[in-house]
Amino acid sequence: MSIANDSVFSHIVHAPEDPILGVTVAYNKDQSPVKLNLGVGAYRTEEGKPLVLNVVRKAERLLVDDNSRVKEYLPITGLADFNKLSAKLIFGANSPAVSENRVVTVQCLSGTGSLKVGASFLGRHYHQKIIYIPLPTWGNHPKVFTIAGLSVKSYRYYNPSTRGLDFQGLLEDLGNAPNGSIVLLHACAHNPTGVDPTPHQWDQIRQLMRAKALLPFFDSAYQGFASGSLDADADAVRKFVADGGECLAAQSYAKNMGLYGERVGALSIVCKSADVAPRVESQLKLVIRPMYSSPPIHGASIVATILKNEEMYREWTVELKAMADRIIRMRQQLFYALKDKGTPGDWSHIVKQIGMFTFTGLNSKQVEFMAKEYHIYMTSDGRISMAGLSSKTVPHLTEAIHAAVSNVA
Amino acid sequence: MEQLIRSGFSGRVTKSGFLGAARSMSTAWWSHVEPAAKDPILGVTEAFLADPSPNKVNVGVGAYRDDNGKPVVLGCVREAERRIAGNLNMEYLPMGGSVKMVEETLKLAYGENSDLIKDKRIAAVQALSGTGACRLFADFQKRFSPDSQIYIPVPTWSNHHNIWRDANVPQRTFHYYHPESKGLDFASLMDDVKNAPNGSFFLLHACAHNPTGVDPTEEQWKEISYQFKVKGHYALFDMAYQGFASGDPERDAKSIRIFLEDGHLIGCAQSYAKNMGLYGQRVGCLSMVCEDEKQAVAVKSQLQQIARPMYSNPPIHGALVVSIILTDPDLKKLWLKEVKGMADRIIGMRTSLRENLENLGSPLSWDHITKQIGMFCYSGMTPEQVDRLTNEFHIYLTRNGRISMAGVTTGNVGYLANAIHEVTKTA
């Protein structure tokens, strides 16, 4: 006699599409020849093609042609060179925290993976299991932290009426947070709004946080991409490290080196003292090992090859600036096109915001309208990826926004 | 109101006190963090690397070595990489990974002409090698069968325990290894299967059990499968060594095929770390057989939900290597030849090690060395004997006495046999 072999999972329902990655799914299904994908934040050229940086191609060929290279497991913490160079990139070549051996850096799976490992570590070892995330933030943030056992709260960030920073609200909310809470900060080019604090505002944020011993957790996914300068885009992080306090930083090479699918990133934890750092590293290993044992070698090798070679590093900064500049051009083109068309509303936030995304201010109904009538795809919060625009497609987008704003409440 | 705060480590003085709160910056939030224990397997390689002895031998971690003790990149892999380098883009894969890679991977496990594949009844996603596949399953199990436990064989790969623990799934064990015979404790295994509550989840090693190298025979697999049907148990196969065990991937998948014939809705974690030498690339797959296509779509969507907050989408490079090799008939042929080459070398080393020990006049029986299969030999040595091997002979292996045969070469097999003989002759 056998027990009926029904599936033990027959009760499972279809999960909802990921709000961001689901946009590309919908876009792919669309048959229209004029369809435009402004959803996921992946850079596109003027021709609308994905881009592999020349310096990355070069690095990849060097690696392939090197017959002495093997594919052995990396250590749990990843490629050592890569880790050192990543810390140098974000904290600066002259960071005392690095030279004092107070920084632990582990290679992780891009930004998501770095956030996940950091969050899991905090969930296990940090005394105040609350994290404050800005409102709004990247759609995947809340899940990452909740699953790690942290209680997720938000702090005011975006002001819809000014389409800028709600600085007073931010200070109030962080001021009311329990001492010791973790605070997620976008290092630059806030996603989705593109609104960043000024250096002066960063300073005030920092002082407030240190006074309340709030623990900064930086998400740095766009270093170099925001202003075109790697150093300028890391300034906020470096100022926090310079005051001697502790912080976490998640780095991604997905956008600034175009390594998206290779999943290359790093988590750094800046500790107060050098004797704490190795213990922290050993505990990070316990988080990583039961997740995927060790990180993938390919992308990290490309990054290390580029960062450690002066000539290739220089080439990279040039190509990076070119990407950032193209995005800034697209902002200007879209802004002027909307102005010329007389589209109702103030669109200056398009050129004021920074980084890959523009938070248009379009509502979800307008977004739906634009997908249906104009085959233009974006996330339902009205976030568009400027990287997905080209001079050729700006007119189409302009028309669509004009129609949406004029016809849909 | 401002306060001058002396920073704990550097002695630098900073101004603080936004609201006048004079919070003394305590010497770190992490001072209570204990140093974690070294990973029992990966810690071995760390120790080996630190050893300056010219005679040192690493038979710890399961990574293949050629007869010169060097790591190997397969020819088919080098060729695949040449085709990729500088030519393909690096866009994000979908959350479920490379569709092509997954398709080819399912064929390996389920068979080229599997009806399950034709009928789209398998929910499958690319995973971060075997570890990642097991972890996805464990998290999925916790979410959708929250009251379930996992039965794990004794012994097993140590990281299995970490995976299900971190997924918060309670663990039970079932008998597997029989120390006296250094073979399978089949009777106790079957007892444990029968005594487990109906509908329990079991972790099974599809072939080349790690760490023992002891696999059930075909007949025994058939009995296990039958008993699983009676009890309505769920079988998750961890297949990390397909092709590596016998040299023939089809043969190594036999246990899975037996279960499929009996109609089980299995789960399967696959890894390309060993059989394609893609270790550090982290390429694998988790698949789950469902009742119909609709259920498979639902299950896959839920697996993606688990991956998204962990790493968003899996790494592309290794997946490209796999799909290029498996979809090119010449490269696939080359791969099969190279896998067989690796398996044959290991089988040769087993024979050699055993012969060496017997020629040294060891009082013990060593036929388990050639009876066991796959990368590892469960030598039967005690932790104390292992410690002596390491301390006196600079031979590195895990303390459970597991020897990675892949690390044995014609160059070191004599030295290894001698050392083993020395520490066991008075056993």
Describe the structure.
The complex is a heterodimer of chains A (409) and B (427). With 409 residues, chain A is of the alpha/beta class. Chain A has 16 helices and 13 strands. In chain A, strands 2-10-9-8-7-3-4 form a 7-stranded mixed beta sheet, sandwiched between helices. In chain A, helix 13 crosses helix 16 and helix 15 packs across helix 16. Chain B has 2 domains: 112 residues, Alpha-Beta Complex (Aspartate Aminotransferase, domain 1); 235 residues, 3-Layer(aba) Sandwich (Aspartate Aminotransferase, domain 2), CATH 3.40.640. In chain B, the strands form 5 sheets. A 7-stranded mixed beta sheet of chain B has the order 4-12-11-10-9-5-6. The radius of gyration of chain B is 24 Å and the shape is globular. The N and C termini of chain B lie far apart (75 Å). With 427 residues, chain B is of the alpha/beta class. Chains A and B meet through helix 2, helix 5, helix 6, helix 8 and helix 11 of A and strand 2, helix 2, helix 5, helix 6 and helix 8 of B. Chain A: Keywords: Aminotransferase, Pyridoxal phosphate, Transferase. Chain A: It comes from Penstemon smallii. Chain A: Its EC number is 2.6.1.1. Chain A: It holds the Pfam family Aminotran_1_2.
